[in-house]
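Quick one: sequence plus magnesium ion SMILES, need structure tokens.
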Amino acid sequence: MTSAIRGMWHHLAQQPESYERKQYYTFGRVLGAGTFGEVREAVFTPDGRHVAIKVIKKSGLSGDEAMVLKEIDIVRHLHHPNIVKLLDWFESKDKYYLVFELCTGGELFEEISKRGHFSEEDATNLIRCGYDSISYLHDHNIVHRDIKPENFIFKDRSRDAPLMLADFGIARIMKSDDEVLSTMCGSFGYAAPEVLLRKGHGKAVDVWSMGVVTFSILCGYSPFWRFEEHKALMTAMLSDNIEFIDTYWWGISDNAKDFIRRSLKSNPDERMTAREALQHPWLTGESASTRDLLPDVLHNFNARATLRRAVLKLQAVNRLRKLSHGPAGRSLSDSSSTSDHERPQSSEMDVDQAGKSDGPTEKLEQQQSPEPCSPPTDPKDTVPGSWVP
Ligand SMILES: Nc1ncnc2c1ncn2[C@@H]1O[C@H](COP(=O)(O)OP(=O)(O)O)[C@@H](O)[C@H]1O
Ligand SMILES: [Mg+2]
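Reply:
Sure thing.
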């Protein structure tokens, strides 16, 4: 088909102009499932390059297509060795296609769990990569707002592959350093207390989430696993008292614990910044131990997988969302738009109602990667509730 005929065909089929570019890609296997669609490997046929294409169904966006355009607008300007690059994008009548550089190394937890050995020292290298990308974002006044293990992918399969940050679906550009964003956003278990309490938030939310990620990769369970009920969980998150159970934390350096405590400060003003994290002795020094943490980490990752699946079924969607204002799983606005005037909702309500949607449940069930849950052999162990991250 000549391009003139093809153009006419697209016009007749009411396809957007950019749809023309879809012909250059041959789609392959599914790499990951996300909130609104899936990410598939594809080949850019003109030069044979393999890429990752995030396919987002417009029908799932409930008319808020601006959300995807925002994601494109943010990510196309990012140039950092630890951030996935956007190479192209196009759309059809029904879908958006975001073409990214392909990362072949798999998601953070999944890949760690396949390793033969994983130490605190290995963790520092990964967390440093994470903070390199986050401090770059924060320097450019961008808050990611959905830092979690599924959004970190290894660039390739080599042992020292860089960790890449992906998914700018709910990222925001702040107009100034002290702009306050106010929507509910993030993912269960990783969202900072100021997000859950709707106190207004900023860059510090990414540091909190990194604190949860850091804690979890060192022991395989989440820092607040013990607290099932929303009120107790909030009290724990606000207590500035992070518990390091000896059974799992013996031999892990005091620097690691100090790093985590500073990341999980309940007051965002007291929390260390991404830049400070990079300067912290845990990341700059040599105190991190080389003890193999993997047996404990794996034990805790897998111990309650069945329960976790049941919990996920109830939660149904991994992202906090505002049901009355938009599609599942995404926060739709920040202080620059309508959110400042929205009627207040409790996070519990979001959690409850999130469980009533069917669509995303399927997607979550497909996600097989291990997730940290509660330490099962601790004497004080109780069955964790719906707040297990
Ligand atoms: N560039 C990429 N290369 C390889 N896999 C990717 C890439 N981008 C995303 N993925 C996989 O797809 C999943 C979903 O992508 P993501 O951008 O996080 O979508 P969502 O916004 O729906 O969560 C990721 O968790 C990851 O497993
Ligand atoms: Mg994601």
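The domain at 108-297+341-354 is CATH 1.10.510.10 (Transferase(Phosphotransferase); domain 1). The CA atoms of residues 141 and 174 lie 5 Å apart.
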